[in-house]
Amino acid sequence: MKLSFLALLALITLWTISIPQSSSLTPDGEALLELKSGFNDTKGLLRSWKHKDHNPCGWLGVTCHFPDLRVRSMALHRNSLHGPIPPEIKNCTELRAIYLRANYLQGSIPPEIGELDYLTILDLSSNLLRGTIPPSIGQLVNLRFLNLSTNFFSGEIPNVGVLSSFRNTSFVGNLELCGLPIQKLCRGSLGFPAVLPHSENVASQGAKLVTFHGDLPYSSEEIIKKLEQLDEEDIVGSGGFGTVYKMVMDDSSAFAVKRIDRNREGSDQIFETELEILGSIKHINLVNLRGYCKLPSAKLLIYDYLALGSLDHYLHEHGQDDQPLNWNARMKIALGSARGLAYLHHDCSPVIIHRDIKSSNILLDISLEPHVSDFGLAKLLVGDDANVTTVVAGTFGYLAPEYLNDGRATEKSDVYSFGVLLLELVTGKRPTDPCFVRRGLNVVGWLNTLNGGDRLEEVIDEKCGNVGISKLLKRFLI
Ligand SMILES: Nc1ncnc2c1ncn2[C@@H]1O[C@H](COP(=O)(O)OP(=O)(O)OP(=O)(O)O)[C@@H](O)[C@H]1O
Ligand SMILES: [Mg+2]
């Protein structure tokens, strides 16, 4: 009896060794691995996606339905994924939700996505996707949520099936898209003038003009002619990257043209893509980038013209005739600038770190509303390949100590610079004012010495008008 039991045990052991383990990955898992090999997973975030697993249910971003272990949702937003969306996605036939928002996905949407019969949510917003929107998406009868916004899709939105039920919010921020849902008629449509949301012109002398969102309602010839006429008399200032001119059109509208002489190594394609992203960012407290012109010798960025110039100029160099900034005006400037910066940090995807917040980058319109300028420019022109830069961007006096130390620009280093800007507004002194720099202090150190001696009132710019010290301390300094 004992012998036969042992024989049985040996047999079972032999059987389990000789029979191949059913360890193969489910077809859904295989399809996801195809997807992974298409995505350029720069940060290795998909390392949990492995061939040796039986199913993909424990993989990052994957949710399955139990007990059949079919993949129901894929949530990979903000994962720095590059590359195309492979057509093999269609093999996850039970998918209900795809969230790929805020990556760097390129190429076009594979038409095979229209074979995912149960798909209810498709979010591909804030990527670098191009091409036309495949009509097959119209077949997804269960689709309830579609977000293709902030990409580079072009052409007419197919007015078929479920696609015709989505409105502007699903498509916003695709400069070359047209069609009924976004109320933008396509070129060649009958009965309506052709409104170009985004026009491009390659002029004869090698100048290429791109305007965003139809933001410059002039013909390319007219703009290029005006650009060519700019000369020294039109210069309104110059900075680290080039010279700024005022360009006045025939209808008296004015624009600021920034001539960038410095050229960052790298492809023009990336430069232009990033400019398009900056051109799509709109906020009342940000300077609007309306377009750019590429010449063989330089690049010209076309912005709104802000009539009162920079805060730096207004605060420190205003003439006898200018009204000094009173307390209320300074509050308005502080709050508006904060809103602009908060928008870059919290509402843009990917986040935009300014890197050079300072009073010359706060521009004032005729009603003293502040507009943050040059956002995204430091990264565009200086580069940020390893996410760490030497401190080539940024301006002395405004730089956070940790940014000076390790060259890493973050939202926090922007907030430090903004703090310095607030001190500048209250004290009326530049962060490099000789009265404290002579003593080896920066504006923060100077303030700390006065704070220790209870002499904070001394810092307030007398031009502020009559402002109670307690109010000021509460709002700005403590
Ligand atoms: N959109 C604009 N409208 C009106 N004036 C402008 C505009 N942009 C720039 N300026 C003027 O041109 C000056 C130079 O701007 P620019 O951005 O080139 O240099 P900066 O801000 O001093 O330094 P940085 O190059 O570090 O930004 C500004 O101080 C401002 O007076
Ligand atoms: Mg500037």
From TrEMBL:
InterPro entries: Kinase-like_dom_sf, Leu-rich_rpt, LRR_dom_sf, LRR_N_plant-typ, Prot_kinase_dom, Protein_kinase_ATP_BS, Ser/Thr_kinase_AS. The keyword RNA-binding does not apply. The keyword Lyase does not apply. Residues 1-24 form the signal peptide. Residues 230-478 form the Protein kinase domain. GO terms for cellular component: plasma membrane. Pfam families: LRR_8 (PF13855), LRRNT_2 (PF08263), Pkinase (PF00069). Its main location: membrane. PROSITE patterns: PROTEIN_KINASE_ATP, PROTEIN_KINASE_DOM, PROTEIN_KINASE_ST. GO terms for molecular function: ATP binding; protein serine/threonine kinase activity. It is found in: Cell membrane. Keywords: ATP-binding, Glycoprotein, Kinase, Leucine-rich repeat, Membrane, Nucleotide-binding, Phosphoprotein, Receptor, Repeat, Serine/threonine-protein kinase, Signal, Transferase, Transmembrane, Transmembrane helix. It is a single-pass membrane protein. SUPFAM superfamilies: L domain-like, Protein kinase-like (PK-like). Its EC number is 2.7.11.1. SMART domains: S_TKc. Coiled coil: none annotated. ATP binds at residue 258. Belongs to the protein kinase superfamily. Ser/Thr protein kinase family. This is non-specific serine/threonine protein kinase.
